[in-house]
Amino acid sequence: MKELIELLSKDIQVHEAGTGSLYVEYKGKKVRVADHEPNHTMKRMRGYADLEIYTKDACNTTLKTEIDVVEDIADFFEIEITNETLLKKSEENLQYKIDQSKMTASFEETMAKIQNTREEKIANLKPFVIENLDKIKEIINEAEVYSDSASNGTKRRKKRRNYFFNKMKEVFSIEVELSDVNDVIKAI
């Protein structure tokens, strides 16, 4: 918002407080833009504002957008807003939204591929698990007993997972994760 306000005129001075409040000065007039009530000590230090604009109410509901705030400031300071000023900012916002939508689409596509691959893997594993369910449950129990000697939960889970993986490789000559087998067993 600060950049957009500065685009109104070269003579505008905008100071940003640590709380996010903006103090705008132009030709001896002051405007305070904030989403909260002012700190009265700072009021005495900075001077009282001729106009205070709140962007949010006490319930954190947005009252004014950036464009609304800039329009209010321009009206108060009697500055004409040129199309160039708003066009520049709207083009930046549009480009940002386009970039965001591309990233979101790419992320969703990647997540869908990962999910499909996982579902395929589990579907292919299901007949094997059903066929060898008793032996697999026995290996899971052995892994539980083996992992009980570890000192904490993370080490127990790691020992259990590694034991299961190695035992499945030894007995069935198949590399499969314990979590995948557990998912199949739950689905049965």
From TrEMBL:
Superkingdom per UniProt: Bacteria
Protein name: Uncharacterized protein
